[in-house]
Amino acid sequence: MTPPPIERVLFTEEEIQRRIRQVAAQISAEYAGRELKLIGVLKGSVFFMTALARELTVPVTIDFLGISSFAHSQGAPGLVRISKDLDESVEGEDILLVEDIIDTGFTTRYLLQHLRGRGPKSLAVCTLLDRTPRRIVQIPLDYRCFEIPDRFVVGFGLDYRQYYRNLKYVAVLNPEP
Ligand code: IMP
Ligand code: MG
Predict the structure, then answer these.
(1) For 67-91, what is the mean pLDDT?
(2) Is the pTM of this model over 0.90?
(3) Structure confidence by residue, pLDDT tens digits, 82-107
(4) CA of 102 to the centre of ligand 1 (A)
(5) What are phi and psi of 106, to 5 degrees?
(6) CB 3.0 to 4.6 Å from 164: which of 106, 108, 109, 154, for a disulfide?
(7) Ligand 2 geometric centre to CA of 44 (Å)
């Protein structure tokens, strides 16, 4: 299968790296003197999480959650289910949920509920992309690299039918070439 073509680059590799460095500096300052566990969501947030982790100066550990989303009819909120749980306990730890994109907010809300139930000392959210025009449920967002318009994007972990995750940049996809 040939995925549909890229329409235009939204954020270049350099812009993304620069912005990640800024956000990482902010996180490192706010967590100074503490340890931070990054929780990545498979598979989309892996690319952002590794880039972010490399720029953090506080001691960092990582773990992953896997999720499956079941989209309902068009426009209806999808259901989310954990398909791979954390490997280790987060009880009493400072944890940062690392997301690729927050769209309607349903996925993040579900993950926050799941993580809160595990008794962390603190829980914050960091996302590469934030698409506020489509938000349905409000979620507390602590760190965000970029706000994006209401267009479907790929790259830096984000996929179209599993393609394009490996792009070094974030791009708008043209669904009907
Ligand atoms: P939410 O539950 O609506 O916030 O959806 C978040 C999830 O939808 C993300 O983790 C992505 O997997 C997926 N998603 C939403 N928008 C896009 C996009 O523009 N490109 C690729 N995946 C997206
Ligand atoms: Mg996806």
Answers:
(1) 80
(2) yes
(3) 999 999 999 999 999 999 999 999 99
(4) 6
(5) -65, -45
(6) 154
(7) 6
